[in-house]
Amino acid sequence: MKAVTAKNSSRDAILRAAERVFGELGYHGASMREIAMEAKVAQALLHYHFKTKEALYVAIFEQRSQLINDRRQARLQELRKKGAFDLRAVVEVFALPAPDMFDDPRQNYESYQQMAAAVSVGHDTRSVALVKSCYDGISKQFIDAFMAAVPELTKAAATWCYLYALGIRRQAELQTDRAARLSGGKNPSPPAWLVAFIEAGILSIAQTSAGRKKTAKGRAPTKRKPQ
Hints:
This protein is mostly helical. It folds into two domains: about 1-50, Homeodomain-like (Arc Repressor Mutant, subunit A), CATH 1.10.10; about 65-215, Tetracycline Repressor, domain 2 (Orthogonal Bundle), CATH 1.10.357.10. The chain is about 75% helix and about 0% strand. α1 packs across α2. It is globular, with a radius of gyration of 21 Å. The termini are far apart. Mean pLDDT is about 85; it is low at about 215-225.
């Protein structure tokens, strides 16, 4: 039992260290030697647990995405049990920061967020495969939830709503000083702003989507009254 615990402990330590190194240096900038130094283990131990740098990189995404996706999926299921999706509630689940979904305050997700941001815009085979295997499943669930909450959304419109929202959430999650530079002070993104912005955007696109469907049937779209 102790041997198994020690093995798991060393593997977890390597994953956390690798996450920090990959987050700071990127995939190509990181090396197994640097990761071993960060984890304070022999490099041979890295190759024992993870044969290659790519295998280690993929393992981080598999572990993190599974935990985060499971929590978001559970929240969506709770909404589904209530009988109907409310858009605000769906967006609140989508916008919930990853760190807030876990009880362990020692976990630091900044490095993983940097990694995820890089992969989400990557066109290389590795990035595309990771997005497909780790994120497409939960993405489709949110797209379906958007459509259930707002029936006017077409599948194409709901898909782009999700992708737009994902870009906005990534910007809010990343710990950079750009907002401070632009605003002249430290102004973190309030979760309520993020939710309101995404919700309003989805509703606006839904109206456009509904108008297009009506126009396609030979009927004029309904005009929105001035606020």
